[in-house]
C-alpha cells in the first residue's frame, strides 16, 4: 500500500466522527412534527395495502396545531355528549323540568314594618307594590341580585305562625352570602339580633340565623 493511501484512510476516519443523537437540539415542536410525519406515513402505507412508497412528508407547525385542535374538539364533544346522555338517562323527567326557585311568599302582621325590614335593612330591590282593595291586602314584590324574589303579603288579622317550637311546613328561608361574619356584623349594627355563627358538620360551610319582625327564621349561608 502506498504512502498516499495511508493518510487517505486517516482522513476518512477523521471525516466520520461519532454519530450523535438526531434529537439533540431538536425543539418539542419539531419532535411532534417528526412523530406526526411517521404516523402519517404508516397510516398511508397501511391504507393502501402497502403498495405505496414511503413518502417523506413533514407537516408544518400550523398543520400540527390544526390537527391537535381537531382532536381536542372531538374529545370535548364526546365528553359533553356523554355527560348529557348520562343526565338524560339518570334523571327522570320530573327532576329536569324544575329550573329554579322563583319566589318565596311571606305573610306579615305589620306591613310597613316588614316592608322597611326587607327593603331597607336587607336591601332587597322593590319590583312592584299593589294594594288589593277587595281583600284589604298589600302585595310587595322584592328581588335579590340573582333574580329570585320574595312576595310580601299583608292580610287583616292573620294568625301567628309558631316558630318555637317549630311548626310543620317550610322551616326557614336561607340567603347566600360571601361572608357570614360581615353580614352578621352589619345586621347587628342595624339592631337585628343574630345567633352565634356555626359551621355545618356535613358541608363545612359557615351559617347563622336571625329573625324578621314576625319571628320568621332567616338564615345566612356562606357560599
Structure description:
With 223 residues, the protein is α/β, with parallel strands linked by helices. Helix content is 38%, strand content 21%. The chain has a 4-stranded mixed β-sheet, covered by helices on one side. A hairpin with a 5-residue loop joins strand 3 and strand 4. The longest helix is centred in the middle third of the chain and has 30 residues. The radius of gyration is 37 Å and the shape is elongated.
Output the structural class: alpha/beta
Across the major sheet, the strand order is 1-4-3-2
Question: What count of helical segments does DSSP give?
Answer: 6
Uncertain runs are none
What is the end-to-end distance? Answer: 92 Å
> Beta-sheet strand percentage?
15-25%
Shape: elongated
**How many β-strands, per DSSP?**
8
Give the biggest beta sheet: 4 strands, mixed
Give the structure's gist in a few sentences.
By secondary structure, this protein is an alpha/beta fold. The chain contains six helices and eight strands, in the order ααααβαββββαβββ. It has helices spanning 5-14, 28-47, 61-90, 93-96, 111-121, 180-189; strands spanning 103-108, 125-132, 137-143, 149-154, 173-177, 198-199, 206-211, 217-222.
Write the layout of secondary structure elements.
Layout: H1 5-14, H2 28-47, H3 61-90, H4 93-96, E1 103-108, H5 111-121, E2 125-132, E3 137-143, E4 149-154, E5 173-177, H6 180-189, E6 198-199, E7 206-211, E8 217-222
Amino acid at each position: 500500500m502506498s504512502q498516499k493511501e495511508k493518510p487517505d484512510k486517516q482522513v476518512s476516519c477523521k471525516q466520520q466522527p461519532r454519530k450523535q443523537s438526531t434529537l439533540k437540539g431538536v425543539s418539542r415542536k419539531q419532535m411532534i412534527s417528526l412523530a406526526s410525519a411517521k404516523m402519517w406515513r404508516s397510516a398511508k402505507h397501511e391504507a393502501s395495502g402497502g403498495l405505496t412508497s414511503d413518502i417523506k412528508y413533514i407537516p408544518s407547525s400550523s398543520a400540527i396545531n390544526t390537527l391537535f385542535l381537531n382532536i381536542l374538539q372531538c374529545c370535548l364533544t364526546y365528553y359533553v355528549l356523554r355527560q348529557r346522555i348520562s343526565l338524560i338517562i339518570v334523571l327522570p323527567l320530573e327532576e329536569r323540568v324544575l329550573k329554579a326557585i322563583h319566589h318565596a311568599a311571606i305573610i306579615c302582621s305589620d306591613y310597613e314594618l316588614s316592608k322597611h325590614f326587607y327593603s331597607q335593612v336587607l336591601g332587597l330591590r322593590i319590583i312592584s307594590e299593589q294594594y288589593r282593595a277587595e281583600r284589604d291586602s298589600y302585595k310587595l314584590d322584592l328581588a335579590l341580585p340573582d333574580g329570585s324574589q320574595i312576595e310580601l303579603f299583608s292580610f287583616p288579622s292573620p294568625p301567628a305562625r309558631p316558630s318555637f317550637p317549630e311548626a310543620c311546613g317550610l322551616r326557614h328561608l336561607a340567603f347566600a352570602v360571601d361572608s357570614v361574619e360581615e353580614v352578621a356584623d352589619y345586621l347587628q349594627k342595624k339592631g337585628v339580633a343574630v345567633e352565634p355563627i356555626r359551621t355545618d358538620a356535613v358541608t363545612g360551610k359557615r351559617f347563622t340565623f336571625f329573625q324578621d319582625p314576625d319571628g320568621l327564621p332567616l338564615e345566612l349561608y356562606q357560599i
